[in-house]
């Protein structure tokens, strides 16, 4: 098993960690533990007690939930967190239970885990570091508000193109703004859960985007062939 410090280059590829005060960045590494998950393994579930802050250093984590009456409950995939995303900060602020489920989306998903109590103790000694955690939270809030607007206003084809372009660009989290991900490890079923669209609708839209040369659909993956055009198709 690798040590947290071994993943510093990966962490520094993300905007949030790269901009941290040196004292906080080092403290997170010193407090962190590595944790490996198999595909589908739960990290935490809705209602679990807060357990700290996490960073994805390999693989991906799905944040999901189930809503509605028990006989008509529907699953939703809110987002897929990939390298170098940090998450778990909501419960750090309010001390309340986890709001959604978190499961490993890929084989050999590897996380850094900064436990709740040591992190809170550090923040009590260095209250100025709360500002950096607040920036992590507000960045997520901005993305969530844009996603809500997308769901409410964009037609289905634009929603699909916009979300795929956003995922290809790492949700804007990389320090290198020109960096992009050519292959998105996401099935059509997972994309339908993410956008609250039927599997049939997703398939039709993806086939149209493929016919236009914007992407290629593979089993469990979507390959982006023309990111600028895909971004433009999302409006």
Number of helices: 10
Please count the beta strands (DSSP E, at least 2 residues each).
11
Low-confidence segments: none
CA-CA gap between termini: 44 Å
**Mean pLDDT over the full residue set:** 93
Q: Which of globular, elongated, flat, extended, rod-shaped describes the shape? A: globular
Please name the defining characteristics of this protein.
4-stranded antiparallel sheet, alpha+beta
Outline the structure in words.
The protein is α+β, with helices and mostly antiparallel strands and 235 residues long. It is 43% helix and 23% strand. It has a four-stranded antiparallel β-sheet with strand order 1-8-3-6. Strands 2-7-4-5 form a four-stranded antiparallel β-sheet. The chain has a three-stranded antiparallel β-sheet with strand order 9-11-10. A hairpin with a 2-residue loop joins strand 10 (215-218) and strand 11 (221-224). Helix 8 (188-195) crosses helix 9 (199-211). The radius of gyration is 18 Å and the shape is globular. The N and C termini lie far apart (44 Å). The relative contact order is 0.15.
Put the structure in a nutshell.
The chain has helices at 8-12, 15-18, 22-31, 89-94, 116-125, 130-153, 156-168, 188-195, 199-211, 227-233, and strands at residues 33-37, 42-44, 52-58, 60-67, 74-82, 86-87, 101-104, 109-115, 183-184, 215-218, 221-224. The protein has 235 residues and is of the alpha+beta class.
Give the SSE layout:
Layout: H1 8-12, H2 15-18, H3 22-31, E1 33-37, E2 42-44, E3 52-58, E4 60-67, E5 74-82, E6 86-87, H4 89-94, E7 101-104, E8 109-115, H5 116-125, H6 130-153, H7 156-168, E9 183-184, H8 188-195, H9 199-211, E10 215-218, E11 221-224, H10 227-233
Antiparallel strand pairs: 1-8, 2-7, 3-6, 3-8, 4-5, 4-7, 9-11, 10-11
Helix pairs in contact: 7-9, 7-10, 8-9
């Amino acid at each position: 098993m690798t040590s947290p410090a071994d993943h510093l280059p990966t962490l520094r590829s993300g905007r949030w960690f790269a901009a941290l005060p040196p004292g906080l960045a080092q403290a997170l590494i010193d407090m962190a533990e590595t944790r490996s998950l198999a595909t589908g393994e739960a990290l935490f579930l809705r209602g679990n007690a807060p357990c700290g802050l996490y960073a994805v250093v390999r693989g991906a984590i799905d944040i999901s939930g189930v809503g509605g009456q028990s006989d008509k409950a529907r699953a939703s995939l809110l987002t897929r967190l990939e390298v170098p995303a940090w998450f778990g900060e909501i419960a750090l602020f309010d001390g309340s239970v986890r709001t959604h489920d978190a499961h490993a989306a890929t084989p050999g998903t590897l996380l850094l885990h900064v436990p709740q109590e040591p992190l809170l103790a550090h923040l009590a000694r260095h209250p100025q570091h709360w500002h950096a955690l607040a920036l992590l939270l507000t960045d997520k809030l901005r993305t969530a508000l844009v996603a809500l607007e997308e769901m409410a206003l964009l037609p289905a084809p634009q929603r699909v193109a916009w979300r795929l372009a956003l995922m290809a660009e790492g949700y804007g989290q990389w320090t290198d703004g020109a960096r992009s991900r050519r292959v998105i490890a996401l099935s059509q079923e997972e994309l339908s859960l993410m956008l609250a669209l039927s599997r049939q609708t997703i398939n039709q839209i993806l086939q149209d985007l493929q016919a236009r040369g914007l992407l290629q659909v593979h089993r469990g993956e979507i390959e982006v062939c023309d990111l600028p055009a895909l971004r433009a198709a999302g409006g």
